Amino acid sequence: MTTSSAPSRPHVVLGVSGGIAAYKACELLRRFTESGYDVTVVPTEAALEFVGAPTWAALSGKPVSTEVWTDVHQVPHVRIGQTADLVVVAPATANLLAKAAHGLADDLLTNTLLTARCPVVFAPAMHTEMWDHPATVANVATLRERGALVIEPAEGRLTGADTGKGRLPDPAEIYAYAVDVLARGGAQAQDLAGRHVVVSAGGTREYLDPVRFLGNRSSGLQGYALARTAAARGAEVTLVAANVTLADPAGVKVVKVETTAQLQEQVVSASRSADVVVMAAAPADFRPAQFTDSKIKKAEDGSAPDIRLTQNPDILAGLARDRPSPAQVVVGFAAETGDAHGTVMEHARAKLARKGCDLLVVNDVGGGKVFGSEENEAVILGADGVTTPVPRGAKSAVAQAIWDRVAGLLESR
């Protein structure tokens, strides 16, 4: 009788270079290990000045070394890279990026980078001036040309009182990005490389007075999943987020807005240079005809104020009608419920024809389904008549299905 062995766990190498953000890599390591990945931590000597070897060993369950002479009989400077399914370097300093771009190998991490034949993700963290320096710009370009995935750093508070671009993205977002890369095979699946993608997410607010507003229940989760997965597939991503409280996706430019007018302005502006526009946000259909400068008070007699509404512009229809090039792909979303006038799909097909977009992602939201949930299911309707059902699953899986359809359309244009 034969017994089947348990499937091997994906092997992730977590490289850590010497920046103050090294402490955040502990959270990234925890997410990998708690999700069942086999993780080998390879820090640089400088990284150990910020987080000691015992911490990395305790969190990973493996001994930690920085140089090639430890356990030399096992040839670690070759074996670690050869056996990896994914290498993530977080944080990646300017010094580490320079060494990787020029093929230097003076410690265990840089040797590992030279021997790895799997996807390699760099998550840079440094001061803005270092990130913007021509040497760093050239090194990043070199690494990307060779197929490495270099995430754009986040903007925010840096070391000391400085703020700007160069902050390490949120560890949860680096983890989600890495998982998407691992699932798709990395550089071999960079089918959106060189493309500019605009995604909108969240729900707009239309103010009645300084306190109250009309809004909706959109959480932004699906739009953020679309932005994150597009970045993992190589795209330059602009995310226009309306009233979303989620962490910024790794490697994505985020523009914050509140109202439908602001959403329209930012999406239209970004779309002028975009290959793809995905309207995953839920703009309010109506806004108050008049804004009251002071808070609306309760009436003594208990009566409610009369509030006149006016219709907001149809952003999706405008994008489809005024696209800068026939090659641009425009994707809309339809949160639908059935009623006496038709089923969910009947309403959706009518909307696809009315809006003029290339794809319409249809969600049945009867009973409040989808909103705020980590999961989604959808049907992708194409103007070409092709219908793609997407079974219930993680919103990242739905996002991948949408990008699969988009990639096919881009290839055919």
How does this model look, in words?
The chain is α/β, with parallel strands linked by helices and 413 residues long. It has two domains: 11-187, Flavin prenyltransferase-like (Rossmann fold, 3-Layer(aba) Sandwich); 191-411, CoaB-like (Rossmann fold, 3-Layer(aba) Sandwich), CATH 3.40.50.10300. Helices cover 32% and strands 24% of the residues. It is built from 13 helices and 19 strands. It has helices at residues 25-34, 53-60, 76-82, 94-101, 108-115, 128-132, 134-145, 171-184, 221-232, 260-271, 315-321, 344-355, 395-411; strands at 11-16, 38-43, 86-92, 120-124, 149-150, 154-157, 163-167, 196-202, 206-207, 213-214, 236-242, 253-257, 276-279, 286-288, 309-311, 329-336, 359-364, 375-382, 387-394. The strands form five sheets. Strands 12-11-8-13-16-17-18-19 form an eight-stranded mixed beta sheet, with helices on both faces. Helix 12 (344-355) links the parallel strand 16 (329-336) and strand 17. Helix 1 (25-34) packs across helix 8 (171-184), helix 3 (76-82) crosses helix 5 and helix 4 (94-101) crosses helix 7 (134-145). The longest helix is centred in the C-terminal third of the chain and has 17 residues, at 395-411. It is globular. It starts with 10 loop residues before the first strand and ends with a helix. The model is unreliable at 1-6 (pLDDT under 50).
